[in-house]
Design goal:
- There is one protein chain.
- The chain is built from 16 helices and no strands.
- Helix 6 runs antiparallel to helix 7, helix 8 packs parallel to helix 10 and helix 10 packs parallel to helix 12.
- It is globular, with a radius of gyration of 22 Å.
- By secondary structure, the protein is mainly α.
- The relative contact order is 0.05.
- Helix content is 72%, strand content 0%.
Length: 288
C-alpha cells in the first residue's frame, strides 16, 4: 500500500525515469539480469532489455523454470533483432520442447529460418526432428534428419539421440538400441550437456521398457544420477511411472528413503525449489 501510494503521486514519465535509473544502478553492479531487464521494460526501453532478458531466461531454464523463462522471452520478443532474435528463438524452441509443448515443432522451424551457421542449422534440424518425433510427426522428423551425418563434432550426440528416438517410434527397437549404445559410448568419452545425458537415459529406458527390462535399468540410472543437479531439474510431478516403481516395486523402503533424501539434497544445493517434495522423505509410507 505504501508503494502504491508513492507511485500514484508520480507522473508516468517520472516512473519511467526511476526505472531507467534503477536499471543503470544494477547494471553498474552487474547484478540480477532479470531485474535489470524488468526495469528497462518498465522504462519503455525494450530494445535495451533484450540481452538482459535473454540472460535471465537462460538462468531460469538452467533451473528448470521453463514457463518463467518463456514469459521472460515473450516480454522482449517483438524488439529482438539479428543475432539476439536468432538466439531468442532457439532458446524459446528448447523451452517449449522441455515443457512438452507441441508448439516446439513450429518454434524450431522459426529458429531454423534465421540460422545461418552450418553447425547451428544441423543442431536445430536434429532438435526439430526430436520434437516432431515426440509430437507423432515421424515424416517431418525423417525429413529433418535427411542428409545429416556424424562428423566427430559435439553435435553428434544430438543427432544420434534424434535418430534413436525416431527409430524407437517407428518400431525398430534394434536400431534404437544400437544408436543409443553408440551415443552412450560418445558421451562416456566427452563432456555432454546434462540434458543430453537425461534424454539418452530416457531413450534407453524406453527400449528397456519395451523389452521388459525397465526395472533394472531405472534402478541403475537412479542410483548413478541421484546426486546430479540436472536430474533434480529434470524431474517433474508427472513422472508417475518412476514413483510407482519405487513405491510398489521391489525396491526396499530404506533404499527409497535414501534416494528421496539424496534427490532432495541435490535439489536444495542446485536451487531447484520445485523439485523439493512438500513433505520430507520420512513422510513416505508403504502403500495400504
Amino acid at each position: 500500500m505504501l508503494r502504491d501510494a508513492l507511485l500514484n503521486r508520480l507522473l508516468p514519465s517520472q516512473i519511467r525515469t526511476l526505472h531507467r535509473q534503477a536499471a543503470a544502478a544494477l547494471e553498474a553492479l552487474d547484478r540480477s539480469p532479470a531485474r535489470i531487464g524488468h526495469h528497462l521494460v518498465q522504462a519503455g526501453d525494450q530494445a535495451a532489455a533484450v540481452r538482459w532478458m535473454l540472460r535471465a531466461a537462460e538462468t531460469s531454464a538452467a533451473l528448470g523454470a521453463y514457463r518463467e523463462a518463456l514469459s521472460t522471452l515473450e516480454a522482449v520478443r517483438a524488439r529482438a533483432e539479428g543475432t539476439d532474435l536468432a538466439r531468442l528463438l532457439s532458446l524459446r524452441a528448447d523451452l517449449l520442447m522441455a515443457g512438452a509443448d507441441a508448439g516446439a515443432v513450429d518454434a524450431y522451424r522459426d529458429a531454423l529460418g534465421l540460422a545461418t551457421d552450418p553447425a547451428d542449422r544441423s543442431r536445430l534440424r536434429a532438435r526439430l526432428a526430436r520434437a516432431a518425433t515426440f509430437a507423432g510427426d515421424l515424416e517431418t522428423a525423417a525429413i529433418a534428419l535427411d542428409g545429416l551425418v556424424t562428423d566427430g563434432s559435439p553435435q553428434d550426440t544430438e543427432l544420434l539421440l534424434a535418430r534413436g528416438n525416431l527409430a524407437f517410434f517407428q518400431g525398430d527397437l534394434e536400431a534404437a538400441d544400437t544408436v543409443a549404445s553408440e551415443a552412450r559410448r560418445r558421451v562416456a568419452l566427452g563432456r555432454p550437456d546434462e540434458w543430453q545425458m537425461f534424454e539418452l537415459i530416457s531413450l534407453q529406458g524406453l527400449v528397456a521398457h519395451s523389452r521388459g527390462e525397465w526395472f533394472q535399468r531405472l534402478r541403475l540410472e537412479l542410483r548413478s544420477g541421484a546426486r546430479r543437479p540436472a536430474l533434480a531439474a529434470g524431474i517433474f510431478d508427472s513422472h508417475l511411472c518412476v514413483a510407482e516403481f519405487l513405491l510398489y516395486g521391489p525396491t526396499p523402503y530404506p533404499e527409497v528413503l535414501e534416494l528421496a533424501a539424496s534427490l532432495r539434497d541435490t535439489a536444495e544445493r542446485s536451487g531447484v525449489l520445485r523439485a523439493l517434495p512438500s513433505q520430507p522423505p520420512c513422510a513416505v509410507r508403504p502403500p495400504c
